[in-house]
């Protein structure tokens, strides 16, 4: 066994298994022992599944010995956000409202596909309550740690998924992204996160927040890991990342939205990062992009209306169990009429069409993953107005990608709590990952 395995990429672990240098059983035991000994384990994992992990690792070890491995990641241990059903366990979605829910009888589709490919399930990670905040603060179940500062928010809603990676307690984590929930914790904890296009990966067997926007995505240590995990869950071939280059790639950067109200640190980190991409051959185009500000305005009612449609009945009966900030964010959805929803949806589609025309000549658009540094958890819990304002700011940049229906990738920057985000085309994950692999090398 080797402690170094805990900081390796999932792909490198898979290559080690394939070369006979790593036994999946030893690998699983290394992670299980690390989880058990970790002082913050109960703030990362909502529950662990050691029996399942050992059984899956044993089967992966047998396949490795007989050269019948199912995938490069066969035998690699990962975590799953606690909104995905895992047979025999409760899906709590970070809320006490589901305390009486029965255990799931089958795995979520994406988890089942992971198991079929040989991924080893370590357990389920903590999250923002009902996945409806970008901050990752959850006084109901647990607030996961940020590796940079004990008082920094971890980012949400896939807070524990990111922490499982940054604390060395999983090779990767699977989260969800409705308005930034993969990318914000990835950015604030300086790892890689991929927001996939709506519909690419099935969401059956997960607790919905907003069905028109919910997506499945990985939080991990490399673009290669993100591409491989996405291919497993989507049931599609992984893109070939070899030879990826930035030369001649055109990247659009919005001056207006990026700077509005942003902290200086993430902006400076982004500008330094984008300069490295330009030095590696990327062609940068700085412009005012009105579609970004417009989509945030016209589509504002949609996610909250869908969240109320999903959770309103439960909130009206046992909503007193909720963190009041999440409840107050959800309740306005009750007053959004079907006519207002349909008007907003139509406007969203109009802006998407305008964006498609503008983006046609570019390979990607770029901006800081979050316009602000991670805020103070203690202040978020003591200052209601601060919480509301900061939550909206945290989600501002990432939410653009969800409302426009885009694929999106965040890459870590050297500065703590800072990430560089790329917007790709709908169902353009393969091209986006090739661009991201080249950008990853330039940023390193």
TrEMBL record:
<dbReference type="InterPro" id="IPR023631">
    <property type="entry name" value="Amidase_dom"/>
</dbReference>
<feature type="domain" description="Amidase">
    <location>
        <begin position="27"/>
        <end position="433"/>
    </location>
</feature>
<keyword id="KW-0808">Transferase</keyword>
<protein>
    <submittedName>
        <fullName>Aspartyl-tRNA(Asn)/glutamyl-tRNA(Gln) amidotransferase subunit A</fullName>
    </submittedName>
</protein>
<dbReference type="InterPro" id="IPR036928">
    <property type="entry name" value="AS_sf"/>
</dbReference>
<dbReference type="InterPro" id="IPR000120">
    <property type="entry name" value="Amidase"/>
</dbReference>
<feature type="region of interest" description="Disordered">
    <location>
        <begin position="141"/>
        <end position="161"/>
    </location>
</feature>
<dbReference type="Pfam" id="PF01425">
    <property type="entry name" value="Amidase"/>
</dbReference>
<dbReference type="GO" id="GO:0016740">
    <property type="term" value="F:transferase activity"/>
</dbReference>
């Amino acid at each position: 066994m080797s402690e170094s395995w805990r900081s390796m990429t999932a792909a490198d672990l898979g290559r080690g298994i394939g070369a006979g240098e790593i036994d999946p059983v030893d690998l699983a035991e290394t992670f299980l022992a690390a989880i058990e000994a970790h002082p913050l384990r109960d703030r990362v994992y909502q529950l662990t599944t050691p029996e399942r992990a050992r059984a899956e690792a044993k089967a992966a070890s047998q396949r490795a010995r007989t050269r019948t491995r199912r995938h490069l990641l066969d035998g690699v241990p990962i975590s799953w956000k606690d909104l995905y059903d895992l047979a025999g366990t409760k899906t709590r979605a970070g809320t006490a409202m589901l305390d009486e829910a029965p255990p799931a009888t089958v795995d979520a589709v994406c988890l089942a596909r992971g198991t079929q490919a040989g991924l080893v399930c370590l357990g389920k990670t903590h999250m923002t309550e009902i996945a409806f905040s970008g901050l990752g603060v959850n006084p109901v179940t647990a607030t996961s740690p940020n590796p940079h500062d004990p008082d920094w928010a971890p980012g949400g809603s896939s807070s524990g998924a990111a922490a499982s990676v940054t604390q060395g307690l999983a090779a990767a984590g699977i989260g969800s992204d409705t308005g930034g929930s993969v990318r914000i914790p990835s950015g604030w904890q300086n790892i890689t996160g991929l927001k996939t296009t709506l519909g690419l990966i099935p969401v059956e067997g997960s607790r919905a927040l907003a069905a028109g926007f919910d997506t499945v995505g990985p939080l991990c240590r490399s673009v290669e890991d993100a591409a491989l995990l996405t291919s497993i869950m989507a049931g599609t071939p992984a893109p070939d990342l070899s030879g990826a280059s930035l030369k001649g790639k055109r990247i659009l950067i919005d001056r207006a939205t990026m700077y509005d109200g942003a902290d200086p640190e993430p902006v400076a980190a982004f500008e330094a990062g984008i300069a490295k991409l330009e030095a590696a051959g990327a062609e940068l185009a700085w412009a005012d992009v009105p579609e970004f500000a417009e989509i945030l305005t016209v589509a504002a009612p949609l996610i909250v209306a869908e969240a109320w449609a999903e959770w309103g009945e439960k909130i009206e009966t046992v909503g007193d169990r909720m963190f009041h900030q999440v409840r107050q964010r959800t309740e306005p959805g009750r007053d959004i009429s079907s006519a207002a929803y349909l008007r907003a949806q139509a406007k969203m589609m109009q802006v998407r069409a305008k964006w498609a025309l503008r983006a046609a000549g570019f390979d990607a658009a770029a901006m800081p993953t979050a316009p602000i540094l991670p805020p103070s958890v203690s202040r978020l819990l003591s200052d209601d107005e601060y919480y509301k304002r900061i939550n909206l700011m945290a989600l501002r940049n990432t939410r653009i990608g969800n409302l426009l229906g885009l694929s999106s990738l965040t890459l870590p920057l050297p500065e703590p709590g800072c990430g560089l985000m790329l917007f790709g085309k709908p169902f353009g994950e393969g091209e986006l990952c090739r661009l991201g692999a080249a950008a990853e090398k330039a940023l390193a």
